[in-house]
Design a protein that fits this description.
Blueprint: H1 9-21, E1 39-43, E2 46-49, H2 50-65, H3 70-75, H4 80-100, H5 107-120, H6 124-135, H7 139-158, H8 166-183, E3 186-187, E4 193-195, E5 200-202
Antiparallel strand pairs: 1-2, 1-3, 4-5
């Protein structure tokens, strides 16, 4: 990811990083080892219910259907369930990694970061429209995504990484991969399988999630 030089560009670059890391969403091809009644995944011994995942998917579909670009938005997010589950798992891993590193994100920090991102993205309404189109995020889901970016930034500093460079991103990814392995992520085979090295559902990348900053999306690091 390239360094950006404008005053608000670092905020946008940080937001783009988590979108990039979450872009590795699979086709329904992988197999699992155990049944998961009612659970989309188990992360660190805690279940992510199918109902919670479906709730996020339904929220996005409702917002997409209300858009003038409904058909295009829905067509471009055919693997929405996998994308949302990917994010839900990733957030739990990030929370643990951040906690272990001694960092956290306050509500004030999240709200400040969201205002800055919206200001650099053409205002709140345009920001929301962009995130629905490029990140399949509804207005009610944006705070969680912004919180992710705040935590990513703090985690990067804690591990000596830099979210604006490939080498720095590798350090962050390595820390997350260690946490992912420790948490023993187990995914319902209906949604694929989890790759600890990539900290993402394995292994087919789709291109429907774009960077919010409008920068060209970079490939995920292949190794940790």
């Amino acid at each position: 990811m390239n360094r950006l030089k404008r005053p608000n560009s670092r905020r946008r670059a940080l937001f783009s990083l988590s979108v990039t890391l979450l872009a590795g969403v699979p086709l329904l091809a992988a197999c699992g080892s155990a049944p998961h009644p009612g659970a989309a995944a188990v992360v660190g011994g805690q279940r992510i219910p199918v109902s919670a995942l479906q709730g996020q998917v339904d929220e996005v579909r409702t917002a997409q259907q209300a858009s003038p670009q409904a058909a295009e938005l829905i067509s471009n997010s055919a693997q929405l369930s996998q994308a949302k589950l990917n994010g839900m798992i990733f957030d739990r891993i990030l929370d643990r990694a951040a906690h272990d590193a001694g960092v956290s994100a306050s509500r004030h920090e999240v709200q400040t970061a969201r205002r800055q991102a919206a200001a650099s993205g053409g205002g709140e309404k345009q920001f929301e429209a962009t995130l629905l189109q490029q990140g399949a995020l509804t207005p009610g889901q944006i705070d969680d995504a912004v919180r992710r970016d705040v935590l990513m930034s703090k985690l990067a500093k804690a591990v000596g990484g830099d979210t604006t460079t490939p080498a720095g991103q590798q350090k962050v990814l390595a820390a997350l991969a260690r946490t992912s392995k420790d948490m023993h992520v187990d995914v319902n085979p209906r949604y694929g399988s989890w790759d600890n090295a990539k900290v993402a559902l394995a292994s087919t990348k789709t291109d429907w999630i774009k960077q919010v900053s409008g920068q060209e999306q970079q490939s995920e690091p292949s190794d940790v």
